[in-house]
Specification:
Low-confidence stretches: 131-136
Distance between the termini: 53 Å
Protein name: Phytoene synthase
GO molecular function, one term: transferase activity
Order of helices and strands: HHHHHHEHHHEHHHH
Keywords: Transferase
Oligomer: single chain
Mean pLDDT: 92
Number of helices: 13
EC number: 2.5.1.32
Pfam families: SQS_PSY (PF00494)
């Protein structure tokens, strides 16, 4: 009886993982490419994290609204998603395939509420408030982030995701407290860099469709703001790059590849005016992405064979 149960559970879990893989394939060629560079013991776990984060992000970024849900129904949908995630991490099972896959990863790597709760707090922030109580057609009040609000949002939406991945990478490693602190700092800085670059490249959609300005309290970003944010991102990427040699060998090429992509995006944004950012999203061509990934693999190989 126990053998049949184990086989059923394993089959269900593998199905959940395939569902998670479909999410990353549908939503991000960049992270999909980076994940393929991870060692087999990390690859599926990172995909499981990405899938949960992406589904939650889509929930608050318009999918539920476009499905016709009222504001309260959107809040209820997010609350249900959060509750089910916590329940699945505790029990090791969910009928929701994406949550089930994430729960297996969380239980394997020790991803707990200290990382999960801040993420969902940022998702709640994205739903925001509505301008007229009691209306099923309420419009979101514009979100404007000062420095403290920005930092808190970025910690929950991005830094903790980097820390989740770090727990995957380091789960079988023995390191001292100093190295652990350095790695945690680097992972947080990399997550923050990714998020800040996405804020810059998504200015058009965030402001026109979602009514959000993550980079300041004014209605319109100025040129000097763009310059300062580029400097901030470059510093964050440099801090993250410094700790890559401390990662396990089978994680370095993937992290280098993702970092190189965002360096390339930063370079492009550095050459793009604010007005252009408000008109279109900055992208890196697929051929360039492939070249960056190849160089990351080569750089890691040379590092390991010195």
């Amino acid at each position: 009886m126990s053998v049949a149960t184990d086989t059923s559970f394993t089959h269900f879990t593998r199905t959940a993982e395939r569902a998670a893989n479909q999410v990353i394939a549908a939503y991000s060629t960049s992270f999909g490419l980076a994940c393929r560079l991870l060692g087999p013991r990390h690859r599926q776990h990172v995909r499981n994290i990405y899938a949960l984060v992406r589904v939650a992000d889509e929930l608050v970024d318009g999918v539920t609204a476009e499905a016709g849900l009222s504001y309260q129904e959107q809040c209820d949908a997010l609350a249900h998603f959060i509750d089910e995630t916590h329940r699945a991490v505790k029990l090791g099972y969910s009928s929701d395939l994406i949550i089930h896959a994430f729960a297996q990863t969380a239980r394997t790597a020790g991803i707990d509420e200290t990382l999960i709760d801040p993420f969902f707090a940022s998702m709640r922030t994205d739903l925001g408030e509505r301008t007229s109580a009691g209306s099923s057609a309420q419009q979101p009040a514009p979100l404007r982030f000062d420095t403290d609000a920005h930092d808190g949002y970025v910690h929950g939406s991005a830094e903790v995701v980097g820390l989740m991945c770090l727990r995957i990478f380091m789960r079988d490693e023995n390191i001292d407290d100093g190295d652990a602190a350095a790695l945690q700092y680097g992972a947080s800085r990399l997550g923050a860099a990714f998020q800040n670059i996405n804020f810059l490249r998504d200015l058009a959609d965030d402001t026109s469709r979602l009514g959000r300005n993550y980079l300041g309290t004014s209605d319109h970003l100025e040129e000097h703001d763009r310059v300062e944010w580029v400097k901030t991102v470059r510093a964050q990427l440099a801090d993250a790059n410094a700790v890559i040699p401390m990662l396990p060998r089978d994680a370095r090429a993937a992290v280098r590849s993702a970092l190189a992509l965002f360096q390339a995006l930063t370079d492009r944004i550095d050459q793009t005016t604010v007005d252009e950012l408000y008109r279109s999203r900055v992208r890196v061509p697929d051929a360039v992405k492939a070249g960056l990934a190849a160089r990351a693999v080569a750089s890691t190989w040379m590092e390991l064979h010195r």
